[in-house]
Here is the input.
Amino acid sequence: MKYIIIGASAAGLACAEQIRKEDKNGEITVITKEKYLPYSRPSISYFLKGAVKESGIYLRKSSYYEASGIDIVTGTQVRSIDRKAKTVKAGRKTYSYDKLCLCTGSKPFIPPMENVSGKINALTFLDLESAGIIKKTADKKTRAVVIGGGLIGMKAAEGLSKICRSVDVVELSPRILPSILDEKSAKSVKKYIEEKGHIKFHLGQTVTRAGSEGNRITSVTLKDGKELPCDLLILAVGVRPETELAEKAGLEVNRGIVTDPGTMQTSDENIYAAGDCAVSVDMLDGSRRVIALWPNAVNQGIAAGSQMSGGDIRITSSYPVNAIDFYGLRICTCGLINVQDKKYTDKIIRSGSSYKRLIFEGSRLVGYVLINSSANAGIYTSLIETKTDLKTLEGDLSGTPDPFIFGKAERNKRMKGALDL
Amino acid sequence: MSVNYIPRRFTVIRDRELCINCGCCVRQCSNECHYFSDDGKTVLSQSDACVACHRCVDLCPTRALRIEKYVCDYRENANWTPQYQQEICRQAETGGVLLSGMGTPKPYPVYWDKILLNASQVTNPSIDPLREPMEIRTILGRKPEKLTVEKKGKSTVEMPPQVILETPIMFSAMSFGSISLNAQKSLAMAAKELGTLFNVGEGGLHPDLKPFTDRAVVQVASGRFGVHSDYLNNSKYVEIKIGQGAKPGIGGHLPGEKVSVEVSNARMIPEGSDAISPAPHHDIYSIEDLRQLIWAIKQATGNKKPVSVKIAAVHNIAAIVSGCARAGADIVAIDGFRGGTGAAPVRIRDNVGIPIELALASSDQRLRDEGIRSQISLVAAGSFRCSADIVKAIALGADACYCASAPLIAMGCHMCQTCNTGKCNWGIATQRPELTKRLNPEIMYKRVVNLITAWNHEIKEIMGGMGINSIDSLRGNRLMLRGIGLSEKELEILGIRHAGE
Amino acid sequence: MKRIYAIEELCLNCRLCEVYCKSAHSQSKDIIKANKYEEPAPVSRVTVYGDNFLSAALNCRHCDDPKCVKACITGAMTKDKKTGIVYVNEDKCIGCMTCLAVCPYGCIKEGKKAVKCDLCRNDDEPACVKNCPNHALIYAEPGGEEK
Amino acid sequence: MLKEGQIRIPSGCAIAAIIDRKGGLINGSEIIKSIALMHDRSNGLGGGFAAYGIYPEHKDEYAFHIFYENAQAHQNCEEFLFKHFNIDVAERIPTKTVDSISNGPDIWRYFGRVNRVRMKNSRLDESEYVVQCVTKVNAAFEGAYIFSSGKNMGCFKAVGYPEDVGEFYMLDRYDAYLWTAHGRFPTNTPGWWGGAHPFNILDWSIVHNGEISSYDTNRRYIEQFGYKCTMQTDTEVITYLFDHLIRHHGLPVNVAADVLTAPEWDEIDRMEPGHKEYFTNLRAIYSGALVNGPFSVILGSNKGLLAINDRLKLRSLTAATKGSRAYFASEESAIRIICPDPDKVWSVSGAEPVFVPLEIDEREDD
Here is the structure.
């Protein structure tokens, strides 16, 4: 059996490793346009702020791939897929496959802005290469502007604030981290970050035009006409699933490659898709959307890899779960957060610097936002994933969740395992 | 304005250098002597309620705690000692009988410590316990006067039921209610492994002890708690409790708070009601009534097991023992005045009863004078602190020894003598679930097994030194004992010669 | 593989397991320095919940298919192929705590890096099991065999 | 100095015995020769013999051998004896002066039958009557000591080496079908001839070598049944144990031997159920009669000879057979000197008694 995997990040590596586990001698080739061996994409902000050396960012030791018989082809762009001939054209070579998996991830979404494209100091912040360039070009005198106050934008801003003179963040929505924080929590996080990172926020704004000298941007002008000096512009508005190859090959695509939610199989039985490029079904509200998070990508990679190599692992539950920290302020979020529907109720517990918001649907937990109170967050996550009816629990959920919120039988299972003592 | 007339007895000393404020002592002291400061960072202690049970001392991970006697001197007065003065103050406050646990701490002479053991030199050789089998197997029960033999190897004797012990040491009566179920379970498991018996006491049998009934001595006391045919029949032998060494002549009182639902089921009494075992058996007012009860029990158990009678060592003990034997008791247990108790009035515990050594010696001699010693078994009880005490008791004439305090100490007891409060920090003399779980039978029974195994080895070593390889030849062998610092009269009662003779 | 099982019926809430876990995972391996002076203060991997009436020491299950390893964005969380022990490779961990957010048993502690039980893999017996006074923590195969 | 009986004197010893199963007579000189060889096992402070079948002409009468320390004791004892028995012969036991044996008591022997009338109103059977009379004299009559009271048998003992005692009593003039002999090594002078072995009651005689560590347990067991251990010696208590088990409890001799040297528990546990129950009951009933500590004992009686060793075989005892004769001795050399080529020689093993019955019907009424 010949397996080809396009893309070598979370989903790609997980898929390759799962195939190797189930098919000891199948031929596995992973093709990536990046020139690096698989590395931890979310860690590039830690790399930017020097918290981890470049050698520490790689997911596996370089000798690992040869040892496990996974052939990584780096720096090679896949140009097209021939579904009938079951071949793939990449660089100057043609690779044939029995099973193919698309793990192309996501690509930055760049809103229309005047005089921005083609500028050498206007960069996205999605891969190690751009992080490397930023780290080289930015210095004590650099005044940086980040477009986008979401997860990527804020992490970039945090990284830059360690090495640049000033950082301005321009965010379309009236609050930072709109996808994971609500009104009240966003306000307190913004205050904290402003104190710790001397970052200036411009909310409800977009960049309309950039001033430049030659191919370098020198300033940006916001919607309200305000002008900001700018030596470095980071485009972190958002991402879109990378589905170009799939569309060209005629696979069904609807804001992400459409796949069978359990087996990750695309509309072509020999082609699978996993990670940020594929559509997931959120088990909590049934919505079909891209859940661009690391754990989800790994699970889908494993499912696809297993299905491709005759295994039977399926995706049973996908939901967003995320842990992130800014200057030591820990934020954990999971499930449905920005919900408007009446059927959802929530409960907020605030004490000192810690903030906890639990979102319920009837007597089921469907989401949480924890700021500086992430102890044992995983227990909340398991309550969400297992759709546990909270009425069956004994303890209440406001404090730090511990085993005693469960009944005796569940506690026995969790702590005594198979021992029948 | 309440005046505290009674100074505290102990002070808990905390070595600040070693203390890591982990709070283990705070959570372990049921008398709440330790507590956290407001910021929850430093542990403080207040020793008024300390009973020196050493729970905090032993569990402290950095050995930062020790207990010290709180010296608060009164004017020197050999007659009016501080203890008497304080006891008067306590009664002036409560108006009640002073209660306490375990055996009397008063410095009456301990005869064990005044008796020395013989050893073989020159004229007769020691027996090497490493080469020869040392036998400590003990058989309790009524023996017929003689063996009737058809021919060698074939006896026609009608043998009454016997109880075989692999060691002369049994665990004395401690009822479910005065001690925790876990403590009883540990003793039961230890008894099973050691091939000996544990005494259920007068608290009835808890269902969890069903697997151990072939190792259980069940008691029939004046309260008849938990006595029914199952109880009698599922046992090794039945013991009628007439008296207890720590409180001769009076009954027992288990306060209602200790009568949990389980205790009430085992004792067949309403939950929460005080369990009073009356002073006399209200159906035994004379010796012939005792005979009637003994025969009733034998009938109820189809004559398949011996019946024992346990009496407290009091004056005229020899006559009472002989009377019990003649009333049909197969085993007579004598409980000396130092025997322990879950709760007993201090005055009685400290003043009533006589030492087991003298009671045993005179009873054994009286039974021999009447020629019936070899027909019944004599069990001694009332504080054996080490294997030498056991050897001396057997040499004085005991068949077997009841031990209770020693195994309890092996399980963690530190003789703080406050069992009656039911707040035992070691999970022994308490029914409170958060305290009883501190005594894990799986761990504690091994400690008891180790203790008795060690004593067995020591007994064998001592016997070997005496040139004896079977405990049958140590029993009643008064020649093996010598007295020191004893009066002529004491030597005469003990039936032993003075050292040097 | 042998794992640590907690028996709540025997747990005494004395929390010595936490004290000894801190010492075992401290620089000095000295119980007083570890629990009192060492900076950064070592973190106990095991945590006792509950009170004197009902308590239990919660510890990592070293799952066969660990969610934390799958969720780890840097490959720091690894399950040792031979011993099955799930441990944190400190060099790679960036302290993002995604593992903490997915561990269904709540056994990962917050710190500069993720803090979790490694079954005292370079000692013969986990410190918490060795020092539990009431045998409430058992280091055994799933079937219960301890030795 | 305290006399034996007031204190317990530990001692080592030599023992020897010869028996002719068919009742063939053996001259005294042979047994003397055998015990003499073991001269170094004793220290001259005690020696003695028991001889069976030496008074054929008086075989239905009791033969009393008595020591008198003074005339007064002689007179009181004879007065008691003539009252309770019909004595028809009273004479000094012929002795020869031997310089190593000096200032001994006056030694008399009497032959007589039981006074029927007195026995009837004592409501005792004949044996019990005789035992009570002997015990009365030895306990109450100061200076008088009956050291032999069997039928057609007699003990001869004194303070001295056994071969000298044999010469003193001129035993070469006696012929018996069963001889036992004893040489003693007490730690200090017994101070009195009565303490020497063999020890006798009725026609039981015991010679014993060793020191039983269970002495006080055995003594306090046997004293429950009317016996008085006046001599405080092992032989005395062993004799009373045998007497009690055989006469009072009617046990056969080898069962009585089983009681004294009962097998060990781990051996009993391995036995088949029937035997196991038998020995468990035996040890339960007679735990006080178990004899512990090293010993080898030879028990003579009109029924035969019993030789037993302690359970752990810590004391030597050799046995041999030649035709109708059986020989026993502490050392094999003491057998070979009088029987150079025995048919069979073996060492008596621990707790396995050897009983050599006499096949002559000596007594009708037994």
Q: What stands out?
A: The mean pLDDT of chain C is 91. Residues 62-116 of chain C form a domain with the Alpha-Beta Plaits fold (CATH 3.30.70.20). The CA atoms of residues 23 and 31 of chain C lie 5 Å apart. Helices of chain C lie at 16-24, 31-37, 67-71, 98-102, 127-130.
